[in-house]
Design goal:
The chain is an alpha/beta fold and 442 residues long. The model has no long low-confidence stretch (mean pLDDT 94). It contains 17 helices and 20 strands. Helix 6 crosses helix 11 and helix 6 packs across helix 12. It folds into three domains: 88 residues, NAD(P)-binding Rossmann-like Domain (Rossmann fold); 208 residues, UDP-N-acetylmuramoyl-L-alanine:D-glutamate ligase; 131 residues, Alpha-Beta Complex (Protein-Tyrosine Phosphatase, Chain A).
Length: 442
């Protein structure tokens, strides 16, 4: 069987490595330049590759193509592959065919990275033989090639789910839905939501689907789909006979037995993180992690970098890095959790954002808006009649300098951009890193 991998990043190199290790003929092609570390990896493992262009003849002679989630569905080469009827899979689909491990797959518009990291932390602390991968950490495929894990916790994006055929997690978890990446889904929210729901399409009745009972779009989709997996809900708004919920000042999971702990003991702050903690606890209970172990994990888990990350406190002003908030709904959760007057740094590459969702929160919680991007006119036009203080900046240095000058004792400076980072930065990590660097400068 001839495997062609499109994309020479973490997932692509991992998939090529797994194919090579399993004795399959493999060729990797990347239309852009491949980073030096990945190029070295390919050379060391004697994997044939090309960069800077696609040799169509080689690609279209494949039996199976593994596609990087970063390659747009509308790319010309994808059309040509589809015309020839060649199977196209994501790395998670490809790698899952070479392992019998139980997979816990987590998706949603917001909170994926935090919840994936939390589930992994719960299982790891309970000494399960578990790996972490997907949209986070090291390549899932490379781990399948080299490790012998009994469980994998995977963060899964809609782009990865677009390219599955047989992917069947033991536990699938859909945290929430909000309008995101609509440019890749014909500006159709339901089309995007259905892509997320593909996480459960191959599950059978011996599998589990954890879902958010409070999420309006999820409710709408569930009325149309037939889910075979055992469905377990969580809610922060109502008490449930089975699943996860809030009871007075506690989170509760009612499954095989009852697990509960005080909300104030959770290490993660904010209503959205209560929901994330409930979802993660349900996954732990399904996998027979004992209550004391779950409680200990929820008390000691540290938030992931770039997601409501407290950078420092200077002159009684808190600086919070939420660079991973690349859509409006993610910023909604960030603003909702603010307890002090907030200087809000926002902007970047707009993905069709509708700011009405956060309008009320901005009115109530935001002291000043500092726009950070090449083109900030949409944000400025939306908020100019609603906020007196709005500043237009085009560098992190300038944005942080202005924010520091505006902040007084007891305030919070929050980087929560609502937008993608690619206008001024290499990635959201680069954006968050530059924010931290500028904040910590004298």
């Amino acid at each position: 069987m001839k495997i062609v991998v499109l994309g020479g990043g973490e997932s692509g190199c991992g998939a090529a490595y797994l194919a090579k290790k399993r004795g399959l003929e493999v060729f990797l092609s990347d239309k852009s330049a491949i980073k030096d570390n990945y190029k070295q990896f390919l050379l060391e493992n004697e994997i044939e590759f090309e960069e800077g262009y696609h040799t169509e003849e080689k690609i279209l002679s494949a039996d199976w193509i593994v596609k990087s989630p970063g390659i747009p569905k509308k790319a010309e080469i994808i059309y040509k592959i589809q015309e020839k009827g060649i199977r196209i899979s994501s790395e998670i689909e490809f790698a899952s065919e070479f392992t019998d491990a139980k997979i816990i797959a987590i998706t949603g518009s917001n909170g994926k990275t935090t919840t994936t990291s939390l589930v992994y932390y719960i299982l790891k602390k309970d000494e399960l033989n578990v790996g972490l991968g997907g949209n986070i950490g090291y390549s899932f495929a490379k781990q399948v090639a080299d490790e012998n894990y009994e469980y994998y916790v995977l963060e899964v994006s809609s782009f990865q789910l677009d390219d599955i055929q047989n992917f069947r997690p033991y536990i699938s978890l859909l945290l929430n839905l909000s309008q995101d990446h609509l440019d890749q889904y014909n500006y159709n929210y339901e089309e995007y939501a259905l892509a997320k729901f593909r996480i459960t399409e191959n599950q059978e009745n011996d599998n589990f689907f954890i879902y958010n009972k409070d999420d309006e779009m999820s409710k709408s989709i569930l009325e149309k789909l037939e889910i075979k997996a055992k469905m377990i809900p969580f809610s922060t708004k109502e008490q449930l006979s089975e699943g996860g919920f809030i009871e007075e000042d506690q989170i509760v999971v009612q499954l095989k037995d009852k697990f509960s702990m005080k909300i104030e003991e959770l290490s993660l702050l904010g209503t959205h993180n209560i929901a994330n903690s409930l979802a993660a606890s349900i996954a732990g209970k399904i996998l027979d992690v004992n209550n004391e172990s779950i409680r200990n994990s929820l008390m000691t888990f540290q938030a992931v970098e770039h997601r409501l990350e407290l950078v420092t406190e200077i002159n009684e002003v808190k600086y919070i890095n939420d660079s991973k908030a690349t859509n409006v709904n993610a910023t909604y959760y960030a603003l909702e959790s603010m307890k002090t007057p907030t200087i809000w740094i926002v902007g970047g590459l707009d993905k069709g954002n509708d700011y009405t969702e956060i309008e009320d929160l901005v009115k109530r919680k935001v002291k000043a808006i500092v726009c950070l991007g090449i083109d900030n006119h949409k944000i400025i036009n939306f908020f100019k009649e609603k906020k007196e203080f709005i500043y237009d900046t085009s560098s992190m240095k300038e944005a942080v300098k202005i924010s520091k000058s505006l902040a007084t004792k007891g305030d919070t400076v929050l980087l929560s951009p609502c937008c993608a980072s690619f206008d001024l930065f290499k990635s959201y990590e680069d954006r968050g890193g530059q924010f931290k660097e500028q904040v910590l400068k004298d």
